[in-house]
Amino acid sequence: MGSSLFDGKFLSALTLLNLEREHPLSAVVDIGAGMGTWSRLLRGVLPTSRWIAVEIWGPDVERYALQELYDAVHVSDLRCFDLRLLPAGGVALLGNAMACMPLDDAVACLGRVLTVCDYALLSIRVGEWKVAGRGEHPWARQMHCWQADDLHRLPGGVHAVFLGDPALVVMICAASPQLQARARTAIQEACQELERHGLLHEPGARGRDYTDPAFLKQFQTRLLGLPAVVQAGERMIETLEADPERRAYAEGWLLGRLQAYVRAEAWEAALRVLERMGVDAKRGSREWLEAALRVSVALKRYEQIQYYAMALLERDGGHVEAHQALIERATEFNAEQIEALFALATRPPQSDQEASACMQRVFYGLSAVLLFGGLDPVRLVQARELLALGLSLPPPVEPDPVFTKIQGMLSVVDLERVFTPGPQVLPALAVRLLGGDGRERSLQAVQATMARHGTKVLFLTAMDEKYFNRYARDFVQGLFERCEVPFLVVIGLVGCGERVPVLAQSLGIDDERLVICGHDPEPAIADGRVYGCVRFMLLEYFLEAFAVPVCCTDVDLVMQRGLGSLVEHCAGYDIVFNENRIVLTIGDRFVANLTWFNPTPVTRQFARFIRSYFQKLLDAGLASDFVDQIVLSLSRRHLEQFAAPRLGRLDPLDINNFMFNQHNIAQFRTIAGLYRFLSLYVSGESSPETVSWWKGVPS
To answer: At CA 69, angle to CA 65 and CA 72, rounded to 5?
Structure first.
C-alpha cells in the first residue's frame, strides 16, 4: 500500500532495538511492505540485519523502488507464500496485511510465520476504521474488523499495547517461552522509556511523508538520542571487552549504532559511545576510526579530529577524508605533526589512481612546513623537497582536475625569492588617475581632495571589465552610504587599455572621493585571476603617495557597517591580516579580502616585495587559483625573516567571509548583525532584492 499511519512507530522501533540488544536480529521480514516505510525508518538503525519484503501488489515494487530498499523482494500473497525462502530467525513485521484477509487466515499465517521467524511484531487497528490505502489495488480491501477478543486467538502473543483513537494495538509474539520472555521485556521497557520522553502517544501522528529525508532524519535523531539506546550501546561495549566470543557481533552492533548516530546527527550520544570504546581507539577497525572522525568533525572537537585523523593516516597515507579533516578543522600543527605530514607527503604514489592523493599530501605537507613553526634550515630543506616533488609528479592517465589545480598552485611558490632579501627600490609605476567623470586627475588634485575631507583610509581594489560592470557600482555606493570614516576609494582596472575613461563614466558616480586607476604596462596575460595580483602591486604606490592606511579588498561585496572600530583596532600594527585559523593551507590561511596596511617603513618593505613577486609571476604567464592568497602567505613569511613586523589579525567574528545564497534574504538578515567591524555581502551574482534590502539596514 502507498500509505502508512505513524501511530506506534516509535514503540515498534524501540522494541526492535531492545530485541537486537539482547540477540542479533538476523533478518527483518516486512510483510505487506507497501512503500517500504519500515526500511526507510529503520534500515539505518539495524544495518547488520538482512531486510526482506513480501508484497502482494507487484506494481508497488517498481513504484516505490523496493529493490533499492530491501535485500530481497518477494511478490506473493502471504497465505500461499513459500516460507522456506526466508532465513531462519529474525523478526516479521505485520500491519495492514492482517486486516486484509479473513481472521482465520490471519491467525494461520501468523502461526506459519513463527515457525521460521523468532518474533512477529504486529500493528493492528481494533474497532471500526478504514484500512490506509484502501482502493489502491484489489488486495487493499479490509476483510476483517478486528476486535479485542480476536487478539486472544493469535499464537505466541505475550504483550499488547493499546494506542490512539481508534485503538491501535502494537503486539509482540514469539515462537518459544524463552523468546516470549525476551519479547515481553523488550516491549515493556520500550513503553516505559517512551512514556518518560513523551513519545509513546505521538501527537499529530497522521499524514507523515515517509519519503521525506528530513522527516526520516528527525525520526532517527529522536529515537537514537533516547538514553536507553545510548545505555544499550555502553552495555554492548562491556560485552565486547568481556566476552571475546561475541566480539564480532558486538563490534558490528556498535558500528551500526554509530553509523546511524552520524546519519541522524545525534552527535553527542555517538561521541559518548566512541569514548567508551577504549582508551586507545587506534586498535579499532578502519570503520571505527572513520565513524569517530566524522563525529568529531561534526562536533568541532579539534583534539579528537587530530587524533583520529593521524591514526587513519598511519594506516593509509592516502586517506583523503583524514587529510581534509586534519587540514580544514585543526588550528595549527606542532613539530611532531609537521614531521608526520612530511613523512606521509614524501611517500611516492603506489599507482596512477593515487597520483591525486599524493599531490594533496604534498600540498598539505608544504603548507604545514611553510605556515607553522620556525623556518630553520631543516624546515627549508623539507619545503624545497616537497615543492620539487609536487612539480615533478607526472599527471595521472585519466585527467584529474584536483591534481591539475594543486600543481598549478605549487607553480607560483618561489621559495628562493621568499628566503632572499627583497628589493630596496623598484621602477616607478606609470599610474593613471581618473575621476568618476572619466577625466584625468593629477596626483596633487587627489591629495587636495583627501586633505579637504580629512581622509583616514583608502579602499583599494582591482578588477577586469566584467567584474567592474557587475559589481563596481554597488561596491562604491555601499561605501558612500555606510562608511562613517572619511575615505577615498580607488578602483584599479585591468586589461581595459583605452577604455578606462569610458568605463569610469559608465558608473554614473561623479564624486571626488572616487578614483579610477589604470597603470602601464598592463599584465601580458588576460586572466580573471590577475586582478587579485594587481591590487597588491598598486599598494606601494598609494602608500607612498597618500600616507594613509590602505584597505585592500574585493569588489563583489556590499558594506553593511562602518569602519570606526576597525580603524581603532588596526592602529597599533604595521599590517593586519584576515587570517582564517581553522584552515591550514597556503591557499586559504590568509584571506585576501580584507587586508589592512598602515603607512610604515615595514609595510612599504612588504609592499615592494609583494609587487616584485607578482610582477615576476605575471611576466612568466603564471596566475593559478588562489594566487593572491598564496603570495600573501609567502610574503608574510618573507617579512618575518627580514624585519620585525607588528602583525595583527582579524578574528572570524570581525568580518563575514562566507558565501551564501544571494536570494536568501532571511539568511542575509540573520548574519547581518553577527560581525563586530563589518559584514560583507559576497555573491556570484548581485541580487536586486538583497541590494535593495541592505540599504535599509541601520548602521
So the answer is: 95
**273-332 residue pLDDT tens:** 666 655 355 566 777 788 778 877 777 777 778 778 878 877 776 676 787 777 665 667
Determine the Cα–Cα distance for residues 295 and 259; give it in Å rounded to an integer. 9
Cα separation, 305 vs 295, whole angstroms: 9
Cα separation, 107 vs 78, whole angstroms:
12
Rg for the chain, CA atoms, rounded: 34
Crossing angle for the helix pair 601-619 and 627-642, to the nearest 10 degrees = 130
94 near 55, Cβ under 8 Å? no
State how far the Cα of 617 lies from the Cα of 414, in Å rounded to an integer.
9
CA angle 15, 19, 22 (to 5 degrees): 145
pLDDT digit string, tens, across residues 28-80: 999 999 889 889 888 877 877 899 999 998 888 988 889 999 999 999 999 99
Contacts of 162 by beta carbon, 8 Å cutoff, 6+ apart: 126, 168, 169
**pTM score:** 0.60
Question: Does residue 653 carry a pLDDT above 80?
Answer: no
The count of other CB atoms within 10 Å of the CB of residue 620 is: 13
Rounded to an integer, what distance in angstroms lies between the CA atom of residue 431 and that of residue 490?
12
Q: Considering Cα of 372, then 376, then 382, then 386, what sign does the dihedral take?
A: positive
Q: How many residues does the chain have?
A: 699
**How far is 189 from 187, CA to CA, in rounded Å?**
6
Q: Which residues pair with 119 in a beta bridge?
A: 91, 174
Cβ within 8 Å of residue 349, ≥6 positions away: 318, 355, 357, 358, 393
Q: CA-to-CA distance for 288 and 267, rounded, in angstroms?
A: 15
CA distance 394 to 645: 40
